[in-house]
Structure to design on (344 residues):
């Protein structure tokens, strides 16, 4: 266990509560935000403290109404036209001012591109520590400190980090690793705040928003994932993985070995050093099941593995293990799926 220290001589007793920094895009709540609320609820119960949600945007009343249905004690909605599009400087200023005013003891962000961008800036401005890309959060029963666990040394070990001398204790959390909070009919109290922002606060200005036309890999939101590993043998081996994925309307994943060999782009990687996923169905093809990979997909509802080696670790952890050559098994599987579709 390591300690994150930034000596600011703070009175730690002034800080109370757990705060989730929610994210939205075009008025749609990011799935990781619902996951963080679920985790925040667990932390708030263990610390006997309230759970707050903070969301930034402009004219996103429906999104705010939706997020108020997830059992937070209070939702803070910061509305301003300069928050309509993400801005590093604007988000940093607003969140920092919220923390200075409300003094939450724990603040958690999603480890998305946005969260990874402004969370470190908030930490620097507040004068506290930040643990990035956490996969486990817990409370030390002996002293109430936040235990922040993340992969280290390329995923070869897990490091647990604490922030003993400063507040708030802050962490970014990898999407897909926490269970989503259940939606309830009751709504949380919502406080709308108009922050003080001016053009002078913004260094970089958004001139235009251009949507990328390339297909984005969204492993953390996929309900079905078909992954290939070292057993596919090369870049061309992923063609059959993609065929199966297309048949199932699934997303293509990969092990670290396949990515390191250059057979597929890194944004397909599942595991401690890639994406952590929780699909309804995970099909592992030619993947032996290293600990690092298993940590990234073991929470899948149903796991099917296809491997020549019956003793491969992933075979023992699967709900259904198929011993055989994936290049023979997958075509048969595709045929069976297509036949079943025709009979519907």
């Amino acid at each position: 266990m390591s300690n994150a220290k930034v000596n600011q001589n703070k009175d730690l007793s002034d800080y109370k509560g757990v705060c989730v920094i929610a994210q939205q895009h075009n008025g749609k709540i990011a799935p990781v935000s619902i996951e963080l609320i679920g985790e925040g609820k667990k932390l708030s119960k263990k610390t006997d403290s309230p759970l707050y949600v903070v969301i930034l945007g402009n004219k996103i009343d429906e999104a705010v109404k939706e997020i108020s249905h997830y059992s937070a004690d209070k939702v803070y909605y910061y509305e301003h036209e300069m928050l309509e599009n993400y801005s590093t400087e604007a988000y940093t200023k607003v969140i920092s001012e919220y923390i200075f005013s409300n003094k939450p003891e724990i603040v958690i962000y999603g480890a998305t591109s946005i969260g990874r961008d402004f969370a470190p800036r908030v930490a620097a401005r507040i004068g506290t520590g930040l643990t990035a890309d956490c996969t486990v959060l817990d409370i030390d029963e002996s002293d109430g400190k936040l235990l922040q666990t993340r992969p280290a040394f390329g995923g070869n070990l897990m490091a647990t980090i604490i922030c003993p001398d400063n507040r708030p204790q802050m962490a970014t959390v990898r999407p897909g690793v926490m269970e989503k909070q259940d939606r309830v009919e009751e709504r949380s109290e919502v406080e709308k705040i108009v922050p003080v922002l001016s053009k002078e606060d913004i260094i970089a200005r958004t001139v235009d928003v251009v949507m990328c036309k390339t297909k984005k890999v969204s492993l953390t939101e996929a309900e079905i994932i078909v992954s290939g590993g070292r057993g596919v043998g090369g870049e061309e081996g992923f063609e059959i993985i993609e065929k199966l994925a297309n048949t199932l309307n699934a997303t293509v994943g990969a092990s670290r070995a396949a990515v390191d060999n250059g057979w597929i782009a890194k944004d397909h990687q599942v595991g401690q050093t890639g994406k952590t996923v929780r699909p309804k169905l995970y099909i592992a093809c030619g993947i032996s099941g290293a600990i690092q990979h298993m940590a990234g997909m073991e929470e899948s509802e149903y796991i099917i593995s296809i491997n020549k080696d019956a003793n491969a670790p992933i075979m023992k952890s699967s709900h259904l293990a198929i011993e055989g050559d994936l290049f023979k098994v997958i075509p048969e599987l595709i045929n069976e799926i297509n036949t079943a579709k025709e009979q519907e």
